[in-house]
Automatic annotation (TrEMBL):
Positions of the HTH tetR-type domain: 14-74
Keyword Transcription listed: yes
SUPFAM superfamilies given in the database record: Homeodomain-like (SSF46689), Tetracyclin repressor-like, C-terminal domain (SSF48498)
Protein's UniProt name: TetR/AcrR family transcriptional regulator
Record bears the keyword Nucleotide-binding: no
UniProt xrefs under PANTHER family: HTH-TYPE TRANSCRIPTIONAL REGULATOR RUTR, TETR-FAMILY TRANSCRIPTIONAL REGULATOR
DNA-binding region: 37-56
Highest taxon listed in the record's lineage: Bacteria
InterPro entries linked: Homeodomain-like_sf (IPR009057), HTH-type_TetR-like_transc_reg (IPR050109), HTH_TetR (IPR001647), Tet_transcr_reg_TetR-rel_C_sf (IPR036271), TetR_C (IPR011075)
PROSITE patterns reported for this sequence: HTH_TETR_2
Keyword field: DNA-binding, Transcription, Transcription regulation
Length: 199
């Protein structure tokens, strides 16, 4: 059963998958999560609804995976030899325009998460948990290098702090987060909290 499902799910090419995710993100920007329908995605991408449901199961999983796709690169090949270098390199993978677009999408989706348990579950499974695991791996490498004290209480809050940079920039300053802002936030807030010297 599992093997059949895996084979069935693997028929979409990476190029086609990227095209579908891009269309989903465009629709999200246009109408928001609640008004987004699988019918609209099917029409926009010239797909059958059956294919979309077979590949993603439903709207929540499709949206969460599209958001994951929208984040340029990953953590796997980032290893600059320092935590500061790693975090700055990760931020450097998206330009200010992409960062602003992703932040706007996330703000809209945070609202939808509160009223949609299925979306919350999909976000946790496909976006939050993988990112948290990857961040922990990056920080653990810094601990192993002796850069971050193993008993630093801030280790558990690195993801919270990073997310805070994106959310509070718009909320408090009415400005989009930028590479420059996030890098200075990393240096002024995250690294000192972890006990890392920046100078």
């Amino acid at each position: 059963m599992t093997e059949t499902a895996t084979v069935r799910r693997s028929r979409i090419t990476p190029e086609r998958e990227a095209e579908l995710y891009t269309a989903v993100l465009d629709l999200l920007r246009e109408v928001g999560y609640d008004a987004l329908t699988m019918d609209a995605v099917a029409a926009r991408t010239r797909s059958s609804k059956a294919t979309l449901y077979r590949q993603w199961g439903g709207k929540a999983e499709l949206v969460a995976k599209a958001m994951r796709f929208s984040k340029p690169g990953g953590f796997a090949d980032v290893d600059t030899g320092s935590l500061r270098g790693d975090l700055h390199a990760l931020i450097g993978r998206a330009d200010d325009c992409v960062i602003e677009q992703n932040s706007a999408l996330m703000r809209g989706l945070f609202m939808a998460v509160h009223t949609n348990p299925e979306l919350l579950q999909a976000f946790r499974e496909f976006l939050v948990d993988p990112e948290t695991t990857e961040f922990r791996r990056v920080v653990q490498r810094a601990v192993d290098r002796g850069e971050v004290p193993a008993d630093s209480p801030a280790i558990e809050y690195v993801v919270h702090m990073m997310l805070g940079a994106f959310v509070t920039r718009t909320l408090l300053d009415e400005l989009p987060p930028t590479q420059e802002f996030i890098r200075s936030y990393i240096d002024a807030v995250i690294l000192p909290a972890l006990g890392v010297r920046t100078h």
